[in-house]
Amino acid sequence: MDETVKSTMKFGNNSNIPILGKGRVAIRLKDGSQNFISDVFYTPGLHHNLLSMGQLSEKGYNMQIHDGYCTWINKNRRFIAKVKMTPNRLFPLKVQHDKIPCLSSIIQNDDWLWHMRFGHYHFSGLNFFSKKEYVSGLPVINIPEGIRETCEFGKKHRESFPTGKSWRARKPLEIVHSDLCMVEIPTHGGSKYFITFIDDFSRKAWVYLLKQKSEACDAFKSFKAFVEKQSGCKIKALKTYRGQEYLACADFFDHHGIQHQMTTRYTPQQNGVAERKNKTIMDMVRCMLKAKQMPREFWAEAVSTTVYILNRCPTKSVCDKTPEEAWSGRKPSIRYLRVFGCTAYAHVPDQIRKKLDDKGEKCIFIGYNTKSKAYKLYNPVTKKVIISRDVTFDEEGMWDWSSKEQKEHAVNPENYEEENRHVDPTPDEPETSSRPQRQRRLPLRLEDYVVGNDNDPSDEEIINFALFADCEPVTFEEASNNQHWRKAMDEEIHAIKRNQTSELTDLPAYKRPIGVKWVYKTKYKSSGEIDRFKARLVAKGYKQKLGIDYFEVFAPVARLDTIRMLISLSAQNNWKNHQMDVKFAFLNGTLEEEVYVEQPVGYEVEGKEDKVYILKKALYGLKQAPMAWYKKIDSYFVHNGFQRCPFEHALYIKSVDSDNILIVCLYVDDLIFTSNNPKMIAEFRKAMVKCFEMTDLGLMSYFLGIEVIQQDDGIFISQKKYAADI
Length: 726
Description:
Mean pLDDT: 81
Number of helices: 18
Strand order of the largest sheet: 13-12-9-10-11-19
Low-confidence stretches: 416-435
Number of strands: 33
Strand content: 25-35%
């Protein structure tokens, strides 16, 4: 609109109305196309829109009035409209107006710019901590006059309730406030809830995204493990509202000595810290999404960014510090803050683009990455989330989400691995944008070879045959039809029961069981003949969580150099190498953690199918199983007079005198040993069989792919079978 056009409009009664400008109006035609009416005067005092027939005639339009109808025809003899006359002799024309989209937001000055960078944080707070210099890089912020429509839409609130004084924590994690909030629109990963935890001492907040309310207990366990490890303090009390998702953790609270403080029913004011925090978060989220007209599905990224910002903003509850400084002791810098949802141009690394590809890509800024010094960006074209530090921002720019295609396909959920994860502030580590790869060429040494094409569909049958020909069964249903595999599974179950590995029990409310599956392996001799069929009941350890289900996982094994050294030593002294195998080795390791597993398929206890097993000893597949077994065998060797090598923790030596030396080398559940006294070897065999279930393999002949031939004139090793398999 041209606001320089000023005039007046005169009516038949000599009254005048001022004209304050001239512009054009967008209209939507019946065929869906858009058109404009130009040279339209802007008269705020006029209550109805008027269309001048004189001006239409000047522009070449033909108007015919006949039998109470007015017909419009343009200069190309094309029919425009036909309108019926009303009793007051007027012809009302109904026109559908279109709003002209604005693709950039105008920022009045630096005060408003920093207001938007801080997610529409209130000006009094910005003015306060810019003067106090709680953060570096922030100029002095003045409180402007007037209001901003975006803030009124997003943050308008009721008047506050009167508050009283409450007891405050004097150390980190003495009191933790928590609240759960539901958002009607699912996130990219399917989450509809977020849960916040606020440390009462520092007022720093952490947020987790949940798909269901029942995941709140797992979120608290992850939060507890993380903050206690970072701060060195223990959570003493948790203050929440009286929700079932928190009540389900009652046993966990009692087990760890955490006092659970709850509000009385329908009294959320008693959990004011968490309630106000969630209200502040949602106020800022609404403002940030509305300011850049972003789809509401991005609320999770906005929540993460808001929590990140609030941890770097002052609060009246913490004197002269931001929550981040009160928690970590370091004054945060905010020089890198940018306006959420603004346009950003990210550098495309040389490794993932071709010579003539663009060196930059246009994206949207959706947050900060705390695992690296980088920004989190989203590319609406490729539907990918990008982590990059080489970014140029247009903080006044915004993406055009008005097209139907952009709104329907704003995000590809497959590119998100979300989401019940610790968000401080980002929900998860996103996937990097994929781009065309460089053309690969065969090296010169392979030019006389015939090489298949990975993308050629005609090779699919050959590939599948090569992968699955003569392989072990994958499912229990497939293996149960074979008597050899059925016998192997029975032996595994009998070994678990005989070893008292687990006990059937009810599942506590605060725990989730880990699934189990059968894994089948055919063991071969060095000659290539089948030795035995082996079935293992394996726990799905990938579902375990660090700090909750396990802590340490490392277990040493003998290096190949050590094994070759032992063979060399035996050859020099004309000793014999012997070999034994520990059956069900991992089942002997004692667990320190409380782990529950489901009943194995095909071996459920009749009438008790709803119960689970609590593990007393380790099970194959658990992350801590190798460590538990190593501790067990290590304690046995040390208790029976062996000395552990300080440089090779899987090598043990028992030396009575120079004529009585026994050396044992351990590789998980395989033992090779040698001695200068046959009597010590016999005693060692007898002791091992008494303590563990063992398989005596006699003289060492095949170990880790190495074939060993022991003769009077020396020891010969080779890898004939290994080379043939390759």
